[in-house]
């Protein structure tokens, strides 16, 4: 058995100092000796634990030295937060805005980060917060819509083949607060089987990529969780090329039912697919000891994943300076493990402990 110490030392060796790009200057990030968990960066712990530990990235912040330094010391995987969504990258027929994702992919290559593609298709039934552009919503002819979807997916998966290895193919196929399949534009035009169809299109575009369904609110809605399991079971039974399920885990209540989450991870894995936590954030809502409650919730969410085979956890950002929660709920809920000045919070320590607990020597 590989000892944790050997794994960590090897990991430190891989992580030689990197030259991080920052606006006009070069920042050198020193690799710590990493002889024991306490001296490792969080990224080194994740590497040694065999975990993809990721963050959503906003491209407009990537040139800020503190943003970039914290990202590189903490994560080994990145997901473009918004720049790969349909309206951002393909806003009009024939118009492609590849620049931001190209930049992120180049950054990831330079720093040996994995990249997850988010997302190929996402439409909620109205009122919609999804990002399917109006020109796509205007297509009512099924054959025409199929051609457009195929072109969208083949273009993106072709361009990033070998660089983006995991894709959220369909984001939020179920109703946000219900458990039926979302009666969205794709469902209305293509029919109930559109999800299977889109996975087949994605598989044809890049047969080596791992293809995911990514779903929200299943952490606290048992009926929706059961519906997700049933949906995936049906796809697997029909040999639809699906490799995994992402549980978003925006834990907006500030807590999580860890036993229920663990059960869901296990139920999905029993179908033969991978499970990932894909958009984790935890607003600090508790009246007493909010940062401690937040830290415990992060620990419980990671624990529910790691106790099963799940080895991929992505946070929806990492610094309270930049979080969608500020705009969507209220400001100051500080849902991430670094504060607005990039200082680590108790949540980071809780995450590190969870990673250290699954090092090979333990
Ligand atoms: C959903 C989407 C993400 C992001 C978040 C918060 O969970 O999957 O891309 O937009 O909402 O905004």
Note down, in words, how this protein is organized.
- By secondary structure, the chain is an alpha/beta fold.
- The protein has a single domain (42-357), classed as Glycosidases (TIM Barrel).
- Helices cover 41% and strands 15% of the residues.
- It has helices spanning 4-14, 42-49, 65-74, 86-89, 99-110, 134-137, 142-159, 185-190, 194-205, 222-237, 258-269, 290-306, 324-328, 346-357; strands at residues 18-22, 25-29, 52-57, 77-80, 114-121, 166-171, 210-215, 244-247, 274-280, 312-315.
- It has an 8-stranded parallel β-barrel, surrounded by 6 helices. It has a two-stranded antiparallel sheet with strand order 1-2.
- Helix 1 packs across helix 2 (42-49) and helix 12 (290-306) packs parallel to helix 14 (346-357).
- The longest helix has 18 residues, at 142-159.
- The protein is globular, with a radius of gyration of 20 Å.
- Residues 1-32 have low confidence and may be disordered.
- Bound molecules: alpha-D-galactopyranose.
- Alpha-D-galactopyranose (GLA) binds at residues 118, 171, 216, 248, 279, 324.
């Amino acid at each position: 058995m590989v000892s944790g110490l050997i794994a960590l030392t090897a990991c430190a060796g891989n992580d030689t100092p990197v030259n991080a790009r920052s606006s006009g200057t070069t920042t050198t990030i020193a690799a710590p000796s990493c002889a024991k968990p306490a001296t490792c960066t969080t990224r080194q712990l994740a590497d040694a634990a065999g975990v993809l530990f990721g963050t959503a990235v906003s491209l407009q912040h990537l040139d800020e030295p503190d943003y970039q330094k914290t990202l590189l010391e903490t994560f080994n995987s990145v997901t473009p937060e918004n720049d790969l969504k349909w309206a951002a990258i393909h806003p009009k027929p024939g118009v492609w805005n590849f620049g931001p994702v190209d930049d992120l992919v180049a950054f990831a290559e330079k720093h040996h980060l994995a990249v997850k593609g988010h997302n190929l298709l996402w439409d909620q039934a109205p009122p919609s917060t999804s990002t399917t552009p109006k020109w796509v919503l205007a297509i009512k002819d099924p054959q025409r819509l199929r051609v457009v979807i195929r072109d969208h997916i083949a273009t993106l998966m072709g361009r990033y083949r070998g660089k983006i290895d995991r894709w959220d193919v369909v984001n939020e196929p179920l109703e946000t607060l219900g458990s039926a399949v979302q009666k969205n534009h794709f469902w209305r035009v293509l029919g109930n089987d559109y999800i299977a169809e889109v996975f087949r299109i994605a598989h044809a575009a890049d047969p080596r990529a791992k293809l995911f369904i990514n779903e929200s609110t299943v952490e606290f809605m048992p009926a929706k969780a059961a519906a997700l399991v049933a949906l995936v079971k049906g796809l697997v039974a029909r040999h639809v090329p699906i490799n995994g399920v992402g549980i978003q885990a925006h834990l907006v209540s500030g807590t999580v039912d860890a036993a229920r989450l663990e059960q869901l991870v296990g139920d999905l894995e029993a179908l033969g697919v991978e499970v990932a936590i894909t958009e984790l954030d935890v607003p600090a809502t508790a009246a007493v000891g909010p940062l401690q409650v937040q830290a415990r919730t992060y620990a419980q969410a990671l624990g529910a994943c790691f106790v099963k085979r799940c080895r991929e956890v992505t946070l929806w950002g990492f610094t309270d300076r930049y979080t969608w929660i500020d705009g969507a709920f209220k400001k100051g809920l500080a849902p991430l493990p670094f504060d607005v000045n990039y200082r680590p919070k108790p949540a980071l320590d809780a995450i590190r402990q969870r990673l250290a607990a699954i090092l090979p020597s333990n």
